[in-house]
Amino acid sequence: MSVARITEISSTSDKDFEDAIRQGIARAAETLHGIKSAWVKEQTVDIDDNKIKSYRVNMLVTFVLDKS
Predict the structure, then answer these.
(1) Sheet of strand 51-64: strand arrangement
(2) Exposed, middle or buried by CB within 10 Å (0-12, 13-18, 19+), for 55?
């Protein structure tokens, strides 16, 4: 039997949404083990002088808990 947990993370990129997702998962993987999936809950952009300054995603990351 395995037990999973879901945690919400936010990640930002100056490049695009895909880069924000990749960076967020890569950073989460440094701490969380057994990541199985991620659901992009929200995408937003920060705008400055009528130009996109950064891309932000909020994700729900599912990972399997280690056995004790």
Answers:
(1) 4-13, 51-64, 35-48
(2) buried
- What's the pTM value of the predicted model, to 2 decimals? 0.89
| Per-residue pLDDT at 1 exceeds 80 | no
Instruction: Say how far apart CA 37 and CA 17 lie, in whole Å.
Output: 17
Q: What is the DSSP string of 10-55?
A: EEEESS-HHHHHHHHHHHHHHH-SSEEEEEEEEEEEEEETTEEEEE
Q: How far apart are CA 13 and CA 34, in angstroms?
A: 24
Using alpha carbons only, what angle is made at residue 32 by residues 13 and 41, rounded to the nearest 5 degrees?
A: 50
At position 14, the amino acid (one-letter code) is D
CATH code, 4-64: 3.30.1660.10
